[in-house]
Specification:
Length: 103
C-alpha cells in the first residue's frame, strides 16, 4: 500500500462529515462512510483509482476525484507521498472552500 498524509483541513472535514452523518443517519452509516473515504485514500495513494487534475480556475496544482457525495482533493508532496488536502461536499461552492483549505 502506498502512503498518504491527511492534511489539517482534510482532517477537519472528516470530523465534520462524521458528526453530520452520525446526527442525520446514525453511527453505523457514519462509520461506513468514513471507512469508505479511507479506502478511497488508499486507492488514490496506490494510483488504483482514476482522477483528474484540479480545474485551472482553482489556481492550484493537484488532483480531484469523487466519492459518493464528496470530492476529494489532493496533491503529490515533495517526498512523493499523496497529501489529502480537503474533502468537500458536492453541493458546496467548491472554489471558495477549496482555496481556503488549500492555502
Amino acid at each position: 500500500m502506498s502512503a498518504y498524509r491527511i492534511q489539517r483541513s482534510a482532517g477537519e472535514r472528516l470530523d465534520e462529515i462524521y458528526v453530520y452523518t452520525r446526527e442525520i443517519w446514525g453511527e453505523e452509516q457514519a462509520e461506513r462512510y468514513i471507512r469508505g473515504l479511507f479506502t478511497r485514500f488508499d486507492d488514490i495513494a496506490a494510483r488504483a483509482f482514476p482522477w483528474r487534475p484540479i480545474p485551472a480556475d482553482f489556481g492550484v496544482s493537484g488532483y480531484v476525484c469523487h466519492y459518493e457525495s464528496h470530492f476529494i482533493y489532493w496533491k503529490i508532496l515533495s517526498d512523493g507521498t499523496v497529501g489529502i488536502v480537503t474533502i468537500l461536499h458536492e453541493r458546496m461552492h467548491q472554489i471558495g472552500r477549496f482555496r481556503d483549505d488549500f492555502s
